[in-house]
Amino acid sequence: MWKAQAICIGLLTAGFAGQQALAADGVAKLPNVDRQETPHLAATAPAAMEMQTRVERQLPKRANFEQTRASGEARHVADWVVDSGDNRSMPFVIVDKAAAKVFVFDAVGQLRGSAAVLLGLALGDDSVPGIGQRKLSTIRPEERTTPAGRFVASLDRNLQGKKILWVDYDAAISLHPVITSNAKERRAQRLESSSPLDHRISYGCINVPVKFFDKIVSPAFTGTSGVVYVLPETRSAHEVFASYDVEERERLKTVSQAEPAPDEFRLITATATATELAK
User: Fold this and answer.
1) DSSP string, 157-201
2) What count of other Cβ atoms lies within 10 Å of the Cβ of residue 64?
3) With CB atoms 3.0 to 4.6 Å apart as the test, which of 3, 6, 120, 169 could cross-link to 146 if both were Cys?
4) Nearest-angstrom CA–CA distance, 240 and 151
5) CATH 2.115.10.20 fits 6-18+85-232, yes or no
6) Over the stretch 224-237, which tens digit does the pLDDT of each residue have?
7) Can you give the pTM of this predicted structure?
8) Structural domain spans, the chain
9) How far apart are CA 201 and CA 187, in angstroms?
10) What is the pLDDT of residues 244-273, one digit of tens each?
């Protein structure tokens, strides 16, 4: 019976069946005021000083890629995942289709490993509706896509008892060790190629090196589910994940915190005016 596992199991059975807080002390010193001449300033000056001298903010959280090279899009999504907590304290994976690379992180955003991947033959970010129920022989080359999106993933076993990581069960998309039974496909050689186009060969599943799956993917997802983020190649990450730029968000927050509220601004202005008059 051809059901959701059709695509990946069809491939697998051929040979192998997821800061600390910073206190920014910006002390803005007001001119000295003679308390005997302007006693009413004794109460207002401390309030103005307090507003200007103590701005506390939380540093943004970021993924730690260590020394591993990664595209700007991969870093953008990984930083957003960690800063927003979108992974819900679970391990997560970034699949960069454009670069044909995969990054596996623990629950707090520490990189556990990265590797090259093989992906769907066709460019595109959407699966054909109902493709998980179809026979492999009916799937045309232009339909063999690896869908982009956020997927809650977990380990499972195929019909031969081999481990795979289900990504999109309905579309029969999984992340699994590379299959090398068909010599004509040269999958092992494709994994080593520096050209991302050479990595487009599968029906949609994500193939990774065998050792990488055994040493990195499987341990990361043992006893827990995780989240797989497959980056788009025809749309932006913001469109797919509603992600934000962590650095820009922090910059806007800092600007907002530095600007005094209307009442505080009037207090500062009044204090400064009174000080000038008292000279």
Assistant:
1) E-TTS-EEEEEETTTTEEEEEPP---GGG-HHHHHH-S-GGGGEE
2) 15
3) 120
4) 12
5) no
6) 999 999 999 999 99
7) 0.74
8) 6-18+85-232, 22-57+248-278
9) 8
10) 999 998 888 777 776 665 665 555 555 655
